[in-house]
Write the structure tokens for this entry.
Amino acid sequence: MDSRAEPGTGRSAASGRDWRDTVRDAADLALLGILTVLAAAPVLTAGAAVGTASAAVHDWLGTGTWPTARRTLARFGRGLLPGLPATLLGLAVVGLLVADLVALASGRVPGGAVALSLTTVVAAALLGYAAALVVEVGRTGGTGWRSAAIRAARACLDHPATWAGLAGTAVVAALLGVLVTPVAVPILAGYALAAVHAVARRRPVVRAELS
């Protein structure tokens, strides 16, 4: 019988799962989201926080166990400087898209519904790419943003269905983040990370050097 651990469970495939495993997984992901948001609170550390959390989810899905606190802290420290340009670029892109969408929706910029629809599609596509980027960074231990950006772009172009799935997942997560109470947003972050990893695992892994 196959006694290997099921991804994300820490239990053998032969032993099966019950409701306690589901509760434990939900609690682990909620805690991951809370810690990620806390680590990203200074803003400039957001890249390192997201990369480290993505690496933790990658380990959990692949081996069934979470990385140790020591390894996680080491990853966070190594990811601070490499994650800074990604953080600044991400903030700039989000700011421009939000300003553009608000201007189009309010009628201050000509273009009407057509321009608003096209901008929304572009925003969703960029969210899907960002999700692919976060997954690729997680596969390399939370660092290597530049190479991860290239792999993510290649993956999106080679697997448009997966890109669309990642975009849809990211859009749903963003909408839920707006609709739920603010205190639930950190919890949602952990689930969103697990969701994009699960979608990305449906395609072949782009070869990368693991750290």
In short: The helical segments are 19-40, 46-63, 69-106, 112-139, 145-158, 160-179, 185-200. The longest helix spans residues 69-106. Residues 1-5, 8-14 have pLDDT under 50 and may be disordered. The chain has one domain: 19-200.
